[in-house]
Structures
1.
Amino acid sequence: MRKLLFEQKELAQSVKEGHFAVRRVKPVGERLPEIHVPTGEVQKAEEGTVLRYGDRLYSHDAYVELRGALGELYRLGPDSDFSIVPVPMIGFTPVYEGRVLIITANGKYRRSCYIPKITGAYIEKAGENLDAFYALMEDLLVFEYDEAGEYFEIVRVPRGNRAYLRHHPDRRMRDRYEVVALERIPDEKIAEILDTYVNPLRW
């Protein structure tokens, strides 16, 4: 994990702040990752491709690494997606869904609110309207904004723990997120995350 924190200078000079470059693509099936651009065009997501505002990447049957100009790193699992979109109260921000490892980065999980910039976290879809947030290297704050634009905290996940959040889309914002569980991450789950998303033999 810590090795990733020292790779932040390996960025293509063509990537400017707010944009993200595809740095690695690891196919595990037939469907290769794609980028859907605002014009409706669909492009291949290949190593070196740059995502700009409004683009949306679908990993399909591949693991994909994205890097930002400020050292942000996202590693997506298969059947995940990533986009850079305007979000109320924030402006343009990374928005992602599926299985995502996050290193020195922030953003919004598509269904389940925001996280601030954090050293290391992992988020995955755990079921219908159920997401799991893993605090790997430091405490993880999950927050949202209500209909009036007021900030509020949903849960603080201590380092080494995970929180399961259930999303109730028909409720008002402050009642929309239910903390179903807050628990220690099992050792075997930590080993799975590290082997899948950090192991240098895979990346």
2.
Amino acid sequence: MRHLIFLLIIGSSITANSQFGIAPTVSYGVSFKSHESFNNFANSYNSVIQDIPAYKEDLNSWGAGRNFEVGLGVAMFGFLMHELNYSRITHNSNVDFQYDHRRKFKMTQNEFNYLATFGGFSEGAQLTFGAGISLISSKIRSSYVFSDGYESLGEDGRLNGIYTLTTVKPILGARFSYPLKKGISITARADWLMPFGTDSKKYGAISSFTDLNRSKVNGSYFSYEQLPQEYNPSQTSIQQNEPTVNGDWQEFRLRIGIIFLLVE
């Protein structure tokens, strides 16, 4: 992480006197996530519920996610483009039971990213490579859905809740740009969000809803503060130093978008 930040600072100093333009971007794509601690939880959960008569199919790892991004870049001609962008990514995972009941997990990420794209930006076709960092606010929403569509986050299910985590992760990526007309290019971009970050904090049920819910039941049988990697239905609380679902995921993203070059 320190080496990556150092390279970004060096790149910024080199381009301090370069000609530049403003480059708004918008893109949409798919995201593929590998989340080891959540996979451990899913495998453990499946081993417990497979003996339940109403059980129909496994809880799987996160499915392909949707990824929307808008950004603004300062294009340094000849070497570097600095980009600041906002991304919103969603992933889902479900386990189905009889009578159209299911447990639903939804992961939502709101990200603020800084990227340094080496190669700058030109009005012709080009392939560029970049690196950066991402400040991520992530939530896992765990709910039980009934046959009438009612989605419960309340005390009728121990895993119910909204689990939150904030972390910073490094990004590596590449982008191909092809001009449609002067000042407008279509882009195809691939990014890798690395598995390590500033910490490995747990997903804690710290939203106002789940805090209120736990106060109502007074730490009862149904109250979970974190998602355990080893699910135990007879366990009433998370033990100290017990492994929980954390921020150890990595992600590969593909996006198609448009970039507008507004030259100063």
3.
Amino acid sequence: METLQTRVWNSTGIKFILVFSLFILLVLGACGGTPSQQTPGYATWTSSPSATPTCDPNLSLSTPSEWGATQLIVILYDPRPRTIGDQYLELETKEKIRDIPSFVDTIVPHLIQPGGQVSIFQLGYSSYDSARVARLYSYISVPQLYNTPSLPQTLTPLPSPVVTLTPGFGYVATKQAETKQAIGRAAVETANAAGYACGVSYWNTVVKLTATAWNGTATAEINDAEKNFATEITNHDKGLGVIETPFRTDELYYGGVYYGLSFASIVFQAECKNYSKCTLIIIDDLQVYREYNPDNLFINLSGVDIYAILPNCRDIDQPSCMKLREYWSPEFKKYGAEKVVYWNGVRAEVNLIDAIGR
């Protein structure tokens, strides 16, 4: 009887232990979870982005936002030696010249841009037709340019577990999940690097081909601009189309800038809407015979950037030049100018190229 009771108790006890153990495992499983759920001491993170390790045949590159902008430039200049005095105009080559028409002749082909226009007037005339020296157009389209590829950002390292786990189901589950995630992250890093390499290769190929083609196109465009401008300025110097004598009145001799602004305004009013940017370049001593547009000429410089070169100023901040700047700045602004910048002849061509572009 005792032996039977012992066997029954042992059988019942074993069943109890098994059931209790199963219960404990279920509890641990509920607390520990799976690698896709939160586990005590198991670091979690946002899923990593996916990437394709092979080059996409339709790979495209982004384009700079302002690339392809066109520009209308109007140049007003006084050709007389008195305008430059004992100073000079410095070219990009460091050459210092004292002839204003030669300076204009040199810089114009460097300033005209694809799809752009340059109109040039000589000061000293009261009529548009006589003052007009040349109008040059660019008939080529700007080539496509692309931003350089960017290397994908390295994935953020996983944080260390905040709980020290003891050997068991949770420990094993966490380690397995960490291993799985590490393998997946390594694959993403590899694919990202491969995608970047594809972008670099594509960029190098496209830009190389574009640069080769553009070099020939741009060179031909500059050569044509130089020839056309040389012809136009020669004809103007010979008096072709000029119907009046320059500097024939005190206003035109000692001033004349307001007439030039009026001629420029006619061009801007007709053409500025067709371009992304409008720019006025003035090469003159900016002397004034009578102030504040005494002849009430039509002037509208709305949205125009003005770059005034005072070649006779040894120092652009010397009192005599500052006085002229203080007079003209509010005048230009009154007629709607967007920006007004003054230079003397030092680094004149470089300043223009930096501000306007080549």
